[in-house]
Amino acid sequence: MIVRKLQDIRTSDRNVKSKGWESARLLLKDDDMGFSFHVTKMYAGEELHMHYQNHLEAVLVLKGTGTIEDLGTGVTHRLAPGVMYALNAHDQHIVRPETEILCACAFNPPVSGREVHDENGAYPADTSSADTGATREPALTD
After folding, report:
1. d(C-alpha 121, C-alpha 128), whole Å
2. Who contacts 65 (Cβ-Cβ below 8 Å, separation ≥6)?
């Protein structure tokens, strides 16, 4: 059994910050769960271009509002508490938080911990020999 406190993660090296977001990574690849789990904050007024080419991600919005644009279809969806979106086809997208958005995220395969988005908006593929087939991307933290 794994038990962790969000407040402890926020003060550890599992709390990753980058431009426009901060992610408390509660479960990572080395936890051997087959996915990673994050609590992520996306900051108001940002425009976050993302394209997880090596991961699938599911996101549940807990607090805040904004939009997510699917760049493949051109469709924009409202984000608000209780809305879930899943990037099940490595969807290229833009998140535009109107207020700070707090969400819970799961990545498959799991991320190893310190990843941030590259120039394409993706996390790198995990090529380590300890790879379990899962890779995870960062989530937001409150």
Report:
1. 21
2. 78, 79, 80, 97, 98, 99, 101
* 136 burial type by CB count under 10 A (0-12 exposed, 13-18 middle, 19+ buried): buried
Q: What six digits make up the tokens of 74?
A: 């051109």
**Structure confidence at residue 131 as a pLDDT band (50, 70, 90):** very low
Q: What is the pLDDT of residues 33-70, one digit of tens each?
A: 999 999 999 999 999 999 888 889 999 999 999 999 99
- Extract the tokens encoding 98: 């109107």
The answer to whether 142 and 133 are in contact (CB under 8 A) is no
> What's the pLDDT score for residue 141?
37
**Helix (H/G/I), strand (E/B), else coil: 10:** helix
The span from the CA of 36 to the CA of 41, in Å, is 16
CB atoms inside a 10 Å sphere around CB 121: 16
